[in-house]
Structure formats: structure tokens, C-alpha cells
Amino acid sequence: MKKLLTLLLIVGLGITTINAQDYEKAIGFKAGGGTLGTAGLNFKTFLSSSNAMDLTLSYGQSVISYNGANYNTSYFSLTALYEIHENAFGVDALNWYYGAGGSVGFLPSTSYTTNNLTVKTSSSMALGFLGVLGIEYTIPDIPVGIAFDLEPGLFYNNGGIYFGMQGALAIRYIIN
Length: 176
Known about the structure:
The chain has a single domain (2-174), classed as Porin, CATH 2.40.160.20. Helix content is 7%, strand content 72%. The chain has one helix at 2-14; strands spanning 15-16, 25-34, 38-46, 51-66, 69-88, 94-107, 110-114, 117-121, 124-139, 144-157, 160-174. The strands form two sheets. Strands 2-3-4-5-6-9-10-11 form an eight-stranded antiparallel β-barrel. It starts with a helix and ends with a strand.
């Protein structure tokens, strides 16, 4: 019990909600790796001092398995995440955030030929629900913010539900 109270005290002292916002709007680039593996244009706007909306229009790669072989195809997606920001560890300009949101993806139709076998896929749309947990640093002397987050999600596409995960790095120019 003593260890639990000590841990709660450390976490309570290390994370505060004072002055979580260091800017109002920022635009930049966000790229991720993992099963989602997307990269694209990112826009973040604060709705209040600690609540933000993070929007990403991205391009990514997907793997289709057919007849024992894997084929790469590309897709486009729009992701909207609602985030709650809090100061991290009492450090100025360092915030951690958590939240959730949704994604819609568009996969164009493609065709592959291998071993005299032609594989055709029809265009489709994927819908997803994502969580987000991350940390962001706003560089004090220049209008740039850098963030890293983890985005696990469940996606529905072609009658199936799939789990995806990515770690993403965002670099944004602070507008105001």
C-alpha cells in the first residue's frame, strides 16, 4: 500500500493541468510506422486551454494477402482526433495528451499479375475508431512543435474488423 501511495504522489506531482496550451493553431507533417504506416498533412487547433482537435490527411500503404502471397496497395485517409492536453512533469512547453477519434480511409482498386495469375481488388472504404496517447514539446524560441504519439485503432473494411497500431511523429509550424 505504501508503494502505491508513493507512486500516486510521484505521478500527481509530475503531471499537472496548469497552462497546458502553448499555442492556438499549428500546421505541419505527421508520419507514422507500424501496421497503419501513414504520412501526411497535419493540422492542430486548440478548442480551449487543454482540449485540441488534431486532423491528418494522409497517404499510406496496405498489404493484401492472396493465395499465399502479399501485395502492396496504397490508400488515403482522413483522421480526426480529440485530445486532452496536460503539462508533463512540470516542464514548460512539454505536454502529454490522450484522447480518441475516428478515421475514414479510401482504397483505390488495383490489379496485380504474378505467376500468370491476375489479382484484382475493388475500391473500398474503411472506417476506424482510434485512441491516442502522446507527448508534445513546443520549442520556446522558434514557432515549432514536435510530438510523438501512439495510435491504436479498430477498423472496419470489407466485412471484417481489424486492429492497427502506429507510432507517429509530427512536426508542426505554430501559426499563433
